[in-house]
């Protein structure tokens, strides 16, 4: 964002939140700030709530050092054969297409990486990802991640996607992006035409509050994606002050389902440094997840946490599963390095 846009954004954020622009600026000096023009406009029109905005609202609690909350909570450092690749599984990997985003989420587990001056991923690094996949024929499914791949212009993004198109071993290409909620016009005709013609694309949305779905432009972009044959799955995170109550979470899942955005994963917060104020107590997570279990099957997401060895732990609700025990495992993993006896 230009200096002028940042100043205007900070003044809108200050007006809506009651935080001073000085407080916001102090936090933004440490962790980058970006709120998309679409959200700024919605705030000015009064149709985006403070609860939803907290996802991007710099808060001085980010500057506190809280025990157990660390810079790399999912242990990604160990999983990168190239700067642009994250490989956790045998047949799948993630490509870090860029480390820039359309908005900077204050709870992001890559908070120490995204939005800093070196956030551009050079073309040479992306070419290394293509070469790596070509040399590993067992990889048949990839996630385009970051940062937000749709923060790139069509010119840059499509030039990369054209190279991916030649990798016939890939059966699925998933785009992980917040554009649907925060820059729905980014899902434009040129991009969708390309994705539709290829036929292997899926879209992974990241909606955490009903306001992230409830807007005519978002619904229109959802329909464009679906008409182009691109399935939409949602990944949501439990966030204190945003969606840590039954009413909000049930409304989010039902609204996604109504618009054919499948509620897929519901994450318990990664314990990232600067994100402790978003952590939701386990009892509350259990209460909300049990309430969701009364929804129609396709509206029920899997409950997920990721430990510092980047192993994904997923559970679906059923009466005999002890959710407290499942979630306590996460605490044991995140205390692993400090209290080895717990493992
Ligand atoms: S868009 Fe994704 S990568 Fe960027 S800050 Fe938000 S969660 Fe992190």
Describe this structure in words.
This protein is of the alpha/beta class and 343 residues long. It has one domain: TIM Barrel. It has twelve helices and nine strands. β2, α5 and β3 form a beta-alpha-beta unit. α10 packs across α11. The protein is globular. The chain starts with a helix and ends in a 9-residue tail after the last helix. The site of iron/sulfur cluster (SF4) has 10 residues, from loops.
What labels would you give this structure?
343 residues, alpha/beta, TIM Barrel, 12 helices, 9 strands
Radius of gyration: 20 Å
CATH architecture: Alpha-Beta Barrel
* Topology order in helix (H) and strand (E) letters: HHHHEEHEHEHHEHEHEHEEH
CATH superfamily: Aldolase class I
Total count of domains = 1
Major sheet attributes: 9 strands, mixed
Structural class: alpha/beta
What would you call the shape? globular
Secondary structure tally, helices: 12
Query: Based on DSSP secondary structure assignment, what is the total number of beta strands?
Result: 9
Percent strand equals: 5-15%
What is the CATH level 1 assignment? Alpha Beta
Stretches where pLDDT is under 50 for at least 5 consecutive residues are 337-343
